[in-house]
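User: I'll paste a sequence; please echo it back and then give the predicted structure.

Assistant: Echoing your sequence first, then the prediction.
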Amino acid sequence: MECLPGRDDIGNDINPTTNRKRECLRHVPLGKKHIDSGFDLEERMKHQRPRIGIMITPGYTSLTMGNWIKHALKLTGEKIHMDIEILITSHVPVYGYGKSHGYSKLIRLVTLPLPLAVTDAYYYSMNELTDEVISNNESNNEFVIHNLDTTLDEQKFKDTTKPSSQTIGSITELLLRWHCRLSHVAAHTAELTLTLDNLLKHPTDTLETILTFVWRQDWEWEGHNHNNQRTTTRREEEGGLFPKIWKGDAEEFVASEDGSLQPLLNQLSLLLQDDLLTSSSSFGETMRQSFVNEMIKSKDLTSWPCPSFWDGVETSVLSQIASEMTPNCRDGDPYARCTVNKDRCEMKKDAECK
């Protein structure tokens, strides 16, 4: 089960990890830059922007999905005069309770079937996650994806060296470790999981679910516009803090040019040409065995801590993917508090963490 806003309101939802009543946090993270703002704690919390994390595994399809969702949230936020921060990242949230990672709510995007996610991660890492990019991100303490328009084209597809069977197996393991980490976060933080096939088959319903999830009144926050003026009164005059039904807005966006899924379909049309995704692929057995081994190692994605991203990483392409998944455990981050040593080990590429 996941921590969805409203479940804990019932009073009898049990956290499967702790066997205690579930607490579903949806707070507004208080950045360090607001400490000296002159307001008391309650006022600072009301003026701080909620932070929505769109969590994606490295890949062209997941990045395109995340960009589509971010654009929809931006437009609806402007429409109802609500200012939020939307971050697309592959870096998992840090361990700890819900107030450690610096997010108000999380949207986890899942590319299925798994062979598609593995193939996508491979092509993305080979073309976009160069050593230079990784080094620059680490030097600048960057953990969000800024180049949201990155796409896979015919030239990149043709020029990319085919992976080895071992590489495919290792990427499978990395993706499962990423989901293991996100599953732990779902025990205490409002998290919505969406799959690629649902978005493609039911884009309007999926977007309606997203808008309902994000724009619920789940936090004590008055909000502000870009001039830092309070807009609570204006929203109340327009019929309430949030619309109760988002179907019309979802239909309008999906029908617009901005809401077109053609860019996503273009990515898929290339990836589906890869031999890895054919029924006769020799990589199938490798992927199945890696899946089984990783599920055993992670106790079906429930072990704590999850297996290290650096366990078994021996090539540059695997290192690039692992680097893109490690927790945001950077000194000086205004929101995340890295309190668990396991996260610091992941940042240091230390799989043993003794």
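The radius of gyration is 20 Å. The mean pLDDT is 80.
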